[in-house]
Amino acid sequence: GVDPKRVCVDTRDIPKNAGCFRYDDGREEWRCLLGFKRENNTCVEDNSPNCNTNNGGCDTTADCQNAERNEENSKKIICTCKEPTPNAYYEGVFC
């Protein structure tokens, strides 16, 4: 689960298909979930995400991997968070 201290307090402006993260200093930031890309202040479906664009939607500190799409795996991008922030939030959109 998500660490409660990482949950955003102000959720009014978070669009659909986005995840919000609260930093230690109280700043809050939303980013589009995997498989979505930001357009203005919304998240729209991204039919061809890849790691060369915006690190695939992964956190800038995460490793991005283009996943093989098959019947067991519908994900196109795999984000792997690394030390010193190895915990993945929203599948690695934040670390």
TrEMBL record:
Keywords: Merozoite. It comes from the Eukaryota. The keyword Nucleus does not apply. InterPro entries: MSP1_EGF_1. Residues 8-44 form the Merozoite surface protein EGF domain. Gene3D superfamilies: Laminin. It holds the Pfam family EGF_MSP1_1. This is Merozoite surface protein-1. It comes from Plasmodium yoelii.
